[in-house]
Amino acid sequence: MKTPAALTEQFRSQGLKITPQRVAVFDALHDNPTHPTAESVHSAVVARMPTVSLRTVYQTLNDLAEMGEISRLEVGTGSARFDPNVEEPHHHLVCESCGMVRDLHVEVAPDLGDDVPDGFEVAGAELVVRGRCRSCADKD
Ligand SMILES: [Zn+2]
Ligand SMILES: [Zn+2]
User: Fold this and answer.
1) Ligand approaching nearest to the C-alpha of 72
2) Which of 13, 18, 38, 136 could disulfide-link to 97, CB 3.0 to 4.6 Å?
3) Running DSSP on this structure, what letter comes out for residue 114?
4) Rounded Cα–Cα distance for residues 7 and 3 (Å)
5) pLDDT tens figures, 13-36
């Protein structure tokens, strides 16, 4: 994801409204490795700017995802997660108890053999490693 300043420029040049609320969403996402949900972006933003609605947060996240600045992940934790790391392709590690999502930088090249339909062009494959993080395991 670009810096909040660069995103502000980009939104402007595409005729999208730039408001302090939207910039606060950029700030909350920038360098954020937690793969937040829309709700957790909202709580971070509201801590600074109590009047921001969840709807504004959703709209800004959708605009960013449409521009390819963030990606939307469905990793089985209930709500969609948002990932500002679109520069380097990576996989994910997910704690099924607390919903922690971390980047995984491993090479994965599945041998698809003959299972791919004839003529199908593979664009990519993503790995989601599920399990339990240490602090969840320690609770038992
Ligand atoms: Zn956990
Ligand atoms: Zn990620």
Assistant:
1) 2
2) 136
3) T
4) 6
5) 999 989 999 999 999 999 899 999
